[in-house]
Every structure is written in C-alpha cells, then in structure tokens.
Amino acid sequence: MREALFIKKNKDRWEKIRVQQTNDVDELSSNFTQAIEDLSYSRTFYPRSATTKYLNHLAATFYLSIYRNRKEDTSRIARFFKTDLPLAMYRCRFTMAFSFVTFSLFCAIGFYSAHTDKSFITDVLGYGYVSMTEENIAKGQPFGVYAEGNELLMWLGIFFNNIKVSFIYFAGSLFLGIPFFIDMIFNTGFLGGLALYGPFNLMQEGLRLGAFEYMFYHHGLGAEAVLAVMIHGTLELAAIVIAGGAGLAMGIAFLFPGTYTRLLSFRHAARDGVKIVFALIPVFCVAGFFEGFITRYYNMPLILNIVILLISAAYIFFYFGVYPFIVHRQQTNANTTPE
User: Fold this and answer.
1) Same domain, yes or no, for 203 and 300?
2) Count of domains observed in the chain
3) How far apart (Å, rounded) are the C-alpha atoms in residues 196 and 61?
C-alpha cells in the first residue's frame, strides 16, 4: 500500500482517537492496540517518514495514559518480602533442606568428636580462644567475651562480618565444593584463600558449633551456653545456612538444568539466590544488634532469654520455612481458578 493511501485510509481514525479522551479501559486498550499495529506497519514500509514519527508519538501518548496513573496495591519493597522472596525460598526448598541437614549433622559430629577427643576442641576453635574461654569459666564469667568492647562498634563489626561470610558461603555453594577438592589434592590455596568450599563451609561451621557447645557442656554449662549464645545465634546461624542453600541451588541449576537451557536455568536460580542473600541483610543486622547489645547481659531473667529465643526461632521457622509454602499455594490457586 502506498503511504498516501495508508494515510488517507486511517487519518480520520487517528485524529479521532487523538482528540477524544476516554476513561473506558476497553476502549483505551483497543485504541492503543490499533495504534501499535499501525506503527508496526508504518515502520516496516515507511521507516523514515513523518507518518512513522506521528504514529510513534500517538502510541507513546496512549502508553503514558495507561501506565502513568496506574495504582499498585503494595509498594515494590512490600511485594518483595510478601511474595517474591517467599516464592524464591520455595523454589530453593530442597537445597535449603540439604543445607540445614548438613549443618545439623556436622554440629552433632562436632559435639561427639569433642567428647571423644578433647584436643578436637582446640583444633577446631583455636588454642587462643579456648584458653581465654577456660579462664573466663574459672572466673565465673563463662560468656565474658560478649561483654567486652563498645556495644555499637561490636554490633557494626559483627554485622558487616556476617554479611561478608554469607556472601562467601553463597558463592562457595555455587561451586558445589569443587574448590575444596582442588585445594585438598593440589594444595593450591585456590582463589586466593577465600575458602569457596560450598557445603564444606557449612560442615566446618557445624563442627565449630558442636565443639563450642561441648566445651561448655563439659563444664556443666551446656544449657547456659545454648541460652546465652543462641540469643544472637538463632538468627545468625539460620541466615548462614540459608545463604549456603541459595548458593547451592545455583550450582545445581547449572549442572542439572532440566528442561531449560543451562544458561536460562542458571539465570533463574541466580535471580532467586541474589534475592535471598540480600533479604538476609536485615536478619544479620538484628543478629548483630543482639550480639552487641543484648548477649552481654546473658544473666538476664530466664523468661526474657527464652522469649527472645522463641521469637527468633518462630520468625525463622515461619517466614523462611512455612510461609513460602503458603504463598506458593495461594499463587497456584489463583492461577488455576477459572475466571
């Protein structure tokens, strides 16, 4: 069709929809669709003409009319924590379960190993830390290490250190522990000593916690250690386990892409993993606050200690464990319900 004929055939309609204002959604959508179709045709056959520029402006005007005043029921941040993050956790549920089981198993192994071999505690925690703790126990201040230093500086230092550790565990799990085997076989100091060992990081962390708890259990302070340390440890350790599970999901998605291409599978898992890790930053912030400002008062009333532990554990269990399944079921029902 010649451009002149194309203009003659449609100009009255273009002028009508340009001049007339409507609030009818169906009519607005129909006009926008027609403008896009005409623009596509004009771009194909008359790419450099004034007609194409006119139609491009017309389509842009309709686009702004549709989306400029669109209202959303929630903000992006609220939607992220209400829907996006729980769905990402649901998609990573199997690696999260594996990460939790791995950590728990090696925590038990660490406790048992410390029971059968007392030197294991020093090997895992270091001679300096063990000696300091033994001295504090002898003084009657077994958890005195948490009362040292300025509260604010301690909070900020722990907060940023935990974020760094979580990103290392996240990246390490991406490599599925392969750097561990390379370093173990060839003694290479792989990747500049960043210890990107994936699941082996969680194993090591579990061994450390198990040995730590036995050290106090051996002195008859097992329950006190749990109550004092887990004030902050509940959030802190749970977040590290979750970060490891998120990274592990990326590594598995790359190796076993399923029906997707390898790159697309990795991109989907990476998007979920990054969402999860960044969402852990507030958790680390609160955990660091607890360790800097509250754990030092480990001799607080028992009921207050238990309340803090229960609230922390309930939050982790519900939001990162149960709530993702609730959101997934809601999304599934919404998608399958007939209009």
Assistant:
1) yes
2) 2
3) 52
Residue 126 lies in a domain: yes
- Between the alpha carbon of residue 266 and those of residues 14, 82, 324, the distances in Å are 46, 24, 21
Q: Is residue 311 part of a domain?
A: yes
Select from 174, 170, 181 the least CA-distant residue to 241: 170
Return d(Cα 55, Cα 63) in angstroms, integer: 12
Classify 244 as helix, strand or coil.
helix
Question: CA-to-CA distance for 277 and 286, rounded, in angstroms?
Answer: 15
Check: CB of residue 207 under 8 Å from CB of residue 113: yes
DSSP 196: -
61 and 82 share a domain?
Answer: no
Residue 198 falls in which region: left (phi positive, over 0), alpha (psi -120 to 50) or beta = left
Q: How many CB atoms lie within 10 A of CB 123?
A: 14
Digit-by-digit pLDDT tens for the chain (339 residues) are: 778 888 888 888 777 777 766 666 566 667 777 778 888 888 878 777 888 888 888 777 766 666 555 555 457 888 889 999 999 999 999 999 998 999 999 999 999 999 999 889 998 888 898 999 889 888 888 887 787 778 888 888 888 888 887 777 777 656 554 554 454 445 544 444 444 445 567 788 889 999 999 999 998 988 888 888 888 889 999 998 998 888 888 888 888 887 778 888 888 888 898 899 999 999 999 998 998 888 888 888 889 989 999 999 999 999 999 999 999 998 888 755 444
User: Which secondary-structure segment (H or E) carries 135?
Assistant: helix 127-139
Residue 1 CA: distances (Å) to CA of 8, 42, 326 = 11, 10, 56
Distance of CA 1 to the CA centre of its chain: 55
